């Protein structure tokens, strides 16, 4: 990492893999044409775009035509929820119900709230103390829904961006389908960390984002099962099979495809090492008085470790993170979008943590570029910052 920074904020974003940079630069130098142009340059750009789509489809076990490129995870989530809702309303005359949960990223919660403001019913399924949606809770909620012409849409994230908690998507998909619904999962954090084949998960829609896997910012995708139709959100040209107008960002797709290929091909080996480092981090942090682990020991992503403190009401969570930054360690308090204002994490609140503990949370997120020396240095910095805070309290 540049600037001698120990970067443990990989759930917010990741550094570009040099291999991805190289392939994007090469493409950029060779071809700037519009993939919609009929001349040879345009056709070469089209081939690069479709090669990228093929590569990513293979990583997901999907068909290329089931991949719709977007500007990132946020747009893909908006497309899943709004595209489904608008299509259902247009074809059945009534809104579908959306079921989600309160630990989701704002890129799900806010589109759901927007749709609710238009009259669409939104229901929230309870999560466990570990932040997990259980098939039993989903089944109970789905049973209680009134009969409606449009099948309900279930949107539950594969793994949480703040805690790393993994949801049992396959089982949730089974419940959803048994009860006649459609299921979307936000796999922005899980892809490249755990298996994400769409058929194994049984999902109808899935969101990915390139910048979480050492790819470029500004590109992501929505996998849409070929049997499912969505209303377009961006009307314009006939790009993406008429599903998203706008000249395709071919060089971003080229980078995304390379990042996805590397992430998937090296996943098991890379994540074994990341898991070893996370375990080392967890063991070392246990030495700090009053630390409690929000990230469960089992059933969580290997790269995320979220902690808070027993005596959190006396702690300044923001101070801890700023202090870590001064010592050259980048960590975060929950999601990047809320960290500017340091509100208590909505995820921890949904899990039942009191506001003080939800505010004092610190998230360490590793990548395959993280080293053991960085983990050890980060633990020392954390212990030091904790001591500084304790000394302040005694004054
Ligand atoms: N979903 C989750 C779980 C995320 O962590 C993020 C990014 O923080 C997003 C969606 C949004 O993705 P993007 O930044 O590509 O819009």
Description of the molecule:
This protein is an alpha/beta fold and 395 residues long. The chain is built from 15 helices and twelve strands. The strands form three sheets. A seven-stranded mixed β-sheet has the order 2-8-7-6-5-3-4, sandwiched between helices. A three-stranded antiparallel β-sheet has the order 9-10-12. Strand 5, helix 6 (169-178) and strand 6 form a beta-alpha-beta unit. Helix 3 runs parallel beside helix 4. It is globular. Mean pLDDT is 95; it is low at 335-339. The protein binds pyridoxal-5'-phosphate. Residues 72-74, 77, 105, 107, 157, 161, 186, 188-189, 209, 211, 220 line the site of pyridoxal-5'-phosphate (PLP). Pyridoxal-5'-phosphate is lined by residues 72-74, 77, 105, 107, 157, 161, 186, 188-189, 209, 211, 220.
Return Rg in Å: 22 Å
Report the portion of residues in β strands: 5-15%
Q: Could you list the spans in which at least 5 consecutive residues all have pLDDT below 50?
A: 335-339
Strand/helix succession: EHHEHEHEHEHEHEEHHHEEHEHHHEH
Instruction: Find the structural class using helix and strand composition.
Output: alpha/beta
User: Total domains, how many?
Assistant: 2
Broad shape:
globular
| Terminal residue distance | 37 Å
Determine the number of helices (DSSP H or I, runs of at least 4 residues): 15
Return the CATH class of the largest domain.
Alpha Beta
Fourth CATH level, the homologous superfamily of the largest domain: Type I PLP-dependent aspartate aminotransferase-like (Major domain)
Largest sheet: 7 strands, mixed
Number of strands: 12
Mean pLDDT rating: 95
Bound molecules: pyridoxal-5'-phosphate
Proportion in helices: 40-55%
């Amino acid at each position: 990492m540049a600037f001698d920074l120990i970067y443990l904020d990989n759930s917010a974003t990741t550094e570009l893999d040099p291999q991805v940079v190289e392939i994007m630069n090469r493409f950029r130098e060779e071809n700037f044409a519009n993939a919609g142009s009929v001349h040879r340059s345009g056709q070469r750009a089209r081939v690069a775009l479709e090669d990228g789509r093929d590569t990513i489809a293979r990583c997901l076990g999907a068909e290329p035509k089931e991949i719709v490129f977007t500007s990132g995870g946020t747009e893909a989530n908006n497309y899943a929820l709004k595209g489904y809702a608008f299509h259902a309303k247009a074809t059945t005359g009534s809104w579908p119900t959306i079921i989600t949960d309160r630990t989701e990223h704002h890129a799900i919660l806010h589109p759901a709230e927007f749709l609710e403001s238009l009259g669409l019913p939104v229901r929230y399924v309870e999560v466990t103390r570990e932040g997990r949606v259980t098939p039993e809770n989903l089944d109970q909620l789905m049973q209680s829904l009134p009969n409606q012409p449009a099948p309900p849409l279930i949107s539950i994230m594969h793994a949480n961006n703040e805690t790393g908690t993994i949801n049992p998507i396959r089982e949730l998909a089974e419940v959803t389908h048994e009860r006649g619904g459609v299921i979307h999962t936000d796999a922005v954090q899980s892809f490249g960390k755990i298996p994400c084949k769409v058929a194994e998960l049984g999902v109808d829609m899935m969101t990915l984002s390139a910048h979480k896997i050492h790819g470029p910012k500004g590109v992501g995708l929505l996998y849409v099962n070929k049997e499912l139709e969505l209303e377009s959100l961006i009307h314009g040209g006939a790009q993406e099979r008429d599903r998203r107008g706008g000249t395709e960002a071919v060089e971003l797709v080229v980078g995304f495809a390379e990042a996805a290929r590397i992430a998937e091909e090296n996943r098991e080996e890379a994540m074994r090492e990341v898991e070893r480092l996370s375990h080392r981090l967890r063991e070392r942090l246990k030495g700090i008085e009053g630390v409690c682990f929000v990230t469960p020991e089992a059933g969580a992503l290997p790269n995320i470790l979220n902690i808070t403190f027993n005596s959190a009401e006396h702690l300044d969570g923001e101070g801890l993170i700023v202090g870590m930054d001064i010592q050259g360690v980048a960590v975060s308090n929950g999601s990047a979008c809320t960290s500017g204002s340091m509100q208590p994490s909505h995820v921890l609140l949904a899990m039942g943590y009191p506001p003080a503990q939800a505010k004092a949370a610190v998230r360490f997120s590793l990548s395959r570029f993280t080293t053991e020396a960085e983990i050890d240095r980060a633990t020392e910095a954390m212990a030091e910052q904790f001591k500084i805070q304790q000394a302040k309290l005694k004054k």
